Structure formats: structure tokens, C-alpha cells
Amino acid sequence: MKKLINIFSKRAGFGFLMVFSTLSLAGTAAYYSVFGLSSLFAGAKTEVIIMASALELAKLVVASYLHNHWSKLGLILKSYLTLGVGILMIITSAGIYGFLTSAYQTTADQLTIIDKQVLVVDMKRDRFSEQLGDYKLEKTQLNSNISELSKGLANNKIQYTDTLGNVITTTSSSTRRVLTSQLNDMKEERNRVSIKMETLTDSITSLDLKVLDMESNNEVAAEIGPLRYMSEITNKPMATIVNWFTLMIVCVFDPLAIAMVLAL
Predict the structure, then answer these.
(1) Most buried residue, 6, 34, 40, 237, by most Cβ within 10 Å?
(2) Residues of the chain with pLDDT > 90: what percent?
(3) Which of helix, strand or coil describes residue 168?
């Protein structure tokens, strides 16, 4: 009965938690390291997985062996095993770093593709906006010409004195026909320009909605939103921010796993 109570005591519970946490952390570090190294040496992926897995297991065993038999080991063997564990920790950290950076690069490549698609749409939109600006200037000039022709048509008066000395005011039919023809042509041209402006405006609005849809439905951009925000507030490239986070993870991942193995 006492043995059963000891198994479920707080101390024993923490021991089980320590074992589970240590194995989880060490196993996760080994997993990421092995597959990170296999990505670096993709030509011999299976062989690298086998080799890296054996080294990861050996590293934990040697670290425990050094801790338990430190005082009994000779200087040469102690130095070599310590150096081996240290080098294996560096290799594991490099594998983890490669795994994480490779994962980010895949996301970054997807984001680059979407950014290029948005850039193409923006370039097309800018071209439409430039054409719309030209048509606005043309319409302004047409309105000015129409106004001048209307004034000319309204002021188309000829005065002369008849034989009785009376001043006669009339209009020139030929001038009126010319001005009317020009005025109608200008109005038709203005209508044509207005239709083109409406078409360009609709196209620009459609492109704006397309860009908005691409950005709002972009899962990749949503995933790295916090990284992009940190990049903006620190004025550093997003790749640099990712590198900082990756290095922080690497610095505590495998070393913490080894420390927990020794503590256990």
C-alpha cells in the first residue's frame, strides 16, 4: 500500500512529468534535426536519416554516460566524448536551423509569387490610371472648346446700314453652319471620351477589388502577419526577423534537451 502511495506522490508525479518532457523535447529535437539534415543532403536522404538518427541516440547516451562516470573516465576518453557531444549538439542545432529556415523559405516563396501577381495587377492598374488621366485632360480641353464654340455661335451677328440709314442686325448662315458642325463634332468626341473614361474607371475598380481579394484571401500572408509587423516596426527585413527567431529556438532546443537528460 505504501509503495502504491509513493508511486502517486507529488514527487513521483513530477518525475513522470520530467521523463515525458525530456523524451518529448529530445525526440522532437532529433526529429527536426534528422529531417533538416536529410534536406541538406537530399541525394542520400535515407542514408542520412539512418546516420543522423544513430548519432542523435548516441549523443544522449554519451551525455548520460559522461554525467554518471565523469570521475572514473580517463582524460583522453573524457575529452573525446565531451568534444563529440559538443559537436553533435552543433550538428543537431544546424539540422534544426536548416529545417526551420527551409519551412520559412517555402512560405516566403509562396508569398513572393502572390506579391508578383499583385505587382502585375498594380502595373496594369497604373497604366489604366495614366490613360484615364490623359482622357480627363482631353475632356477638359473639349469642354473648353465647346464653350468657346457656343459663345461664338451666340455672338454670330452681322450689322449693316440699309439705304434708308437703318442699322440691320442679322446672322451669318455660313458661319452658323460651320460653328454648328464643329460644335456637334466636339460634343460627339466628348461623349466618346466619356464612355472610354467610364470603361477605364470600371476596369480600375475591378483591378482594385482583385488585389483586395488576393490580399484578403491570402493564407500565407495571414500566417506571417506578425513577422511582417515586427519587420515594419524594427525596420529590418523579414528574413532577418525570421533568422533571429530561428537562432533563439536553436540556442535553447538541443542544449535544453541535453540538460534535461542530465538532470533526469
Answers:
(1) 34
(2) 0
(3) strand
Please name the residue that has the C-alpha cell 519551412.
103
Q: In whole angstroms, what is the distance from residue 53 CA to residue 85 CA?
A: 14
Burial class (CB in 10 A: 0-12, 13-18, 19+), 153: middle
The tens digit of pLDDT for each residue in 110-164 reads 777 777 888 888 898 889 889 888 888 988 888 888 887 777 666 655 444 545 5
Q: Which of 128, 135, 138, 137 is nearest to 200 (CA)?
A: 128
> What's the pTM?
0.58
Do 167 and 242 form a contact (C-beta atoms < 8 A)? no
Which of 36, 23, 98, 30 has its CA nearest to residue 59? 30
CA–CA gap between residue 147 and residue 165 (Å, rounded): 36
Alpha-carbon distances of 189 from 68, 87, 119, 146, 192, rounded to whole Å:
95, 80, 34, 10, 5
**Three cell numbers, residue 201:** 474607371
Among all chains, which residue has been given the C-alpha cell 568534444? Answer: 83
Give tens-digit pLDDT for 19-78: 888 888 888 888 888 887 877 777 778 888 888 888 888 888 888 888 888 888 888 888
* CA distance linking residue 5 with residue 179, whole number of Å: 112
Tell me the sheet residues that pair with 161: 167
Question: Strand 158-161 and strand 167-170: pairing?
Answer: antiparallel
Q: Are 248 and 2 in contact (CB under 8 A)?
A: no
Q: What is the CB neighbour count within 10 angstroms for residue 25?
A: 19
Could you tell me if 107 and 220 are in contact, meaning their C-beta atoms sit under 8 angstroms apart? yes
